[in-house]
Structure formats: structure tokens, C-alpha cells
Write a structure and sequence with these properties.
The complex is a heterodimer of chains A (165) and B (93).
Chain A: H1 3-26, H2 33-56, H3 82-107, H4 113-154
Chain B: H1 2-38, H2 44-50, H3 63-86
Classes of the chains: A mainly alpha (165), B mainly alpha (93).
Chain lengths: 165, 93
């Protein structure tokens, strides 16, 4: 499979997981339990498929499972920011745990209902962290730097006489 | 790229939500189908009148709200009919 197709597959999977999670989270009510169940199983299927793809294609740069390391934090380290891998692994684990506990609490182990709820609430914050980090890395960093620079130049002690833009 | 991913996610959410709603609807209708087949919604008033006072004559009552009671009532009726057909008697007869 070409890298372009792998990228498309990964985007499709990401949309599937995100969409399924959104529907499952918004329908976590007794009135909409059937919808919650369906969306939850869609999320579980997405996680299982991702793990299987990661196991089948461990050599693929795009499709291999994330392997967070501490090496990336060392000074002078090159490549992507290590938080990408850490967030990816954390999300796979916490959303997977949420989906598995949800599926089990529905059928075999009803006592898992409370842990399922707690894990799901925690997973929402990991997702928010992931979104904030990605937004910062792919645009936010630049806008923040521009905003700080603009603010800095407007400060009275940084303005010099005869300075014109 | 970020906007694109958000749009993809929302489209997927809409698709999954629609599929889930269809699933929920079919599950509900499957659960109610024996009941609704025997008791169409247009006959609620007359059915209630025939039910020996088990239910009110409120024709506005929704099917979903009375399904449990209707099921129980119909189960009883079916049980009675079954025992009549097969010559068995209820304990409370």
C-alpha cells in the first residue's frame, strides 16, 4: 500500500473513531441507550481494527502503533514532538478501556458501569489535551508567536523614537 | 488540515449517528411489533374501552408509554386464550 493510501486510511480511521466517540459521548443517557450502544461498539471496532493493522503492518511508518519514548525529550533530539506518540498511545489505551468496559458492563459485568463512566470522563480530557496540543503545533504556535511579538512591540518601553513600520 | 479533520470527524459522527438512530428505531420497533401488529394506534380508544377498565380511555396516550402495561395485558389475554383452547384453568378462576 502506498503512503498516500495509508494516509487516507489513517484519516478515515481517525474520523470513524472521533465521530463514533462523539456520538457515544453525547448519547450517554438512558433515553438514547441504543444509539450509545451502537456508537460504542463502532468505537470498539475502530480500536480493534487499529490494533490489528498495527500488528499486521509493524514496519509501516504511518500505520505502525505509536511507541512513546523518553528519547525525544532529550536536548538536540530530532523528529516529531514526542507528545504526539504519547498522546496517541494514551488515547488508544483510554478510549479502548472505555469501549471495553462499556461493552462488558452491557452484557457480562454490570458492575463495570461506574468504572466505564469514570474512564469515559477521563478520556474526554485526554482528547481535549490532544486537540489543544495538535492545534498548538499546527498553527497555534505560529499565531501565539505573532500575538506575543505584536504585544511586545506595543509595550511603551519597547518603542523607540522615530520607529516607523 | 485541522479544519479538514474536524469536518471529517463531524461527517463520520453524522453517519454513525444516523446508523445508530436507524438501529435504535429498528430495535424499538422490533420490540413493539407483536404489540403494534395486534393493536393498531388508531384503535386505542376502542381497545381501552374493551379492556375492562385496566386502562383509561385516554386516546392520546403514546404507545411507548403503555407498552409495558399493554404487554402484560396481552400476555394475560393470550394466557387466558391459551388455557381456554387447551382446557387448562387459571389458579384464580
Amino acid at each position: 500500500m502506498s503512503p498516500k493510501h495509508q494516509h487516507t486510511l489513517l484519516l478515515f480511521w481517525h474520523a470513524w473513531l472521533g465521530g463514533g466517540y462523539l456520538v457515544a459521548y453525547l448519547t450517554a443517557d438512558e433515553d438514547t441507550y441504543a444509539i450509545h450502544l451502537f456508537a460504542g461498539y463502532a468505537v470498539l471496532a475502530a480500536i480493534v481494527i487499529r490494533l490489528l493493522i498495527g500488528l499486521i503492518a509493524p514496519s509501516s511508518k504511518l500505520l505502525k502503533l505509536p511507541r512513546p519514548t523518553l528519547k525525544g525529550w532529550l536536548p538536540g533530539a530530532k523528529g516529531r514532538h514526542p507528545l504526539f506518540a504519547w498522546f496517541a498511545a494514551a488515547l488508544l489505551i483510554i478510549i479502548g478501556a472505555s469501549a471495553v468496559t462499556g461493552a462488558l458492563s452491557d452484557s457480562l459485568m454490570t458492575w463495570l458501569e461506574d468504572p466505564h463512566e469514570a474512564i469515559s470522563e477521563a478520556s474526554l480530557w485526554v482528547i481535549f489535551g490532544h486537540i489543544a496540543f495538535v492545534t498548538y503545533m499546527y498553527g497555534g504556535k505560529r499565531y501565539l508567536a505573532q500575538a506575543i511579538s505584536r504585544l511586545y512591540h506595543r509595550l511603551p518601553f519597547t518603542q523607540t523614537k522615530g520607529h516607523s513600520i | 488540515m485541522l479544519k479538514k479533520m474536524i469536518i471529517h470527524g463531524l461527517v463520520a459522527a453524522a453517519l454513525i449517528g444516523t446508523a445508530a438512530a436507524v438501529y435504535a428505531e429498528s430495535r424499538d420497533s422490533g420490540y413493539l411489533s407483536p404489540n403494534t401488529a395486534s393493536t393498531p394506534a388508531t384503535e386505542i380508544g376502542s381497545r381501552a374501552a374493551e379492556s375492562n377498565g385496566y386502562l383509561s380511555n385516554d386516546a392520546q396516550r403514546k404507545e411507548s408509554h403503555k407498552s409495558y402495561f399493554w404487554n402484560r395485558e396481552h400476555d394475560d389475554d393470550e394466557g387466558m386464550e391459551h388455557s381456554r383452547k387447551h382446557g387448562k384453568k387459571h389458579d384464580d378462576d
